[in-house]
Design goal:
Length: 269
């Protein structure tokens, strides 16, 4: 590991990663297109202006640093040019991707089969093209991340506001604190060029989550859904091994216990 870490695209996840990373790196930098406007919680000397669309900001990335890439890796031509300019292949690089990279399974069986990191991906998606370029040409470690929840990002609020409704579709979730630890484990001991599914390992249907929200907290979705898709069930054997190598383990495997802890927070997202 380098003594420096740069978080490219410092948003929700970065707020949790930064203090943890500060225990392992001498300096943890955060980037934004408008660092002074969006990174008020970051000391000014650790803010970096960076915009993939603005070539003149690429030089702001320090030469000797590990990278945690937190925004969609697209479009491909800019991802390639940026990676070559700052010599990503010579750095420790972890890229946060999405489980939407996986192609929907074709099966009449329910529940859907478990999906591991060898499953087929949709290479027509611009984001997937960028992620795969970084993985295959720059030895990036790709984290395919499930739906992120945590403080100020509460699934109960999603239900209450009608963003989701009861259906048989499976959903995979990961608490932001577990995601942050997974990112640091990948930076520390992840295998270059490998893919890791990042989820709590407990896929649930929205029907179950909505029913529990109603029975336990009196929260009911206003959304009527006719979503007949099965969703996905992510296997996390590789993630478990990665966390074990980093002497960590998932903490938030009980979704409803975690939601209880979030209940006291004002619903903002």
């Amino acid at each position: 590991m380098s003594k420096l870490l740069v978080i490219l695209g410092a948003g929700y996840t970065a707020r949790v990663v930064r203090p943890l990373a500060a225990e392992r790196y001498s300096h943890v930098f955060a980037t934004s297109r408008d660092p002074d406007g969006h990174l008020n919680e970051v000391p000014p000397d650790l803010r970096i202006r960076f915009d993939l669309n603005q070539h003149n900001t690429w030089k702001n990335i320090p030469a000797d640093c590990d990278l945690l890439w937190c925004f969609p890796a697209e479009p491909l031509d800019l991802v390639q040019a940026f990676a070559e300019t700052i010599e990503c292949a010579s750095r420790r690089l972890v890229v946060l991707g999405s489980t939407s990279a996986y192609l929907p399974g074709i099966s009449d069986n329910y529940p859907p089969p478990w999906i591991d990191e060898t499953a087929s991906i949709d290479e027509d998606r611009p984001r997937v093209q960028g992620e795969e370029y970084l993985r295959t040409h720059c030895h990036a470690i790709t984290m395919r991340v499930a739906g992120i929840y945590g403080p100020r990002r509460n699934p109960l609020t999603w239900i209450q506001r009608g963003r989701v409704g009861s259906s048989h579709k499976f959903v995979n979730l990961i608490h932001v604190e577990d995601l942050a630890e997974a990112c640091l484990a990948a930076l520390d001991c992840g295998v270059p060029g490998e893919i890791y599914n990042v989820s709590d390992g407990m896929p649930r249907t929205w029907e179950e989550i909505c029913r529990t929200a109603h029975d336990r907290w009196g929260i009911q979705s206003t959304r009527k859904t006719d979503d007949n898709s099965m969703g996905k069930r992510l296997a996390i054997n590789k993630l478990s091994s990665l966390l074990k190598a980093g002497r960590k383990a998932l903490v938030h495997t009980d979704l409803y216990r975690s939601l209880d802890h979030l209940r006291s927070e004002p619903p903002t997202t």
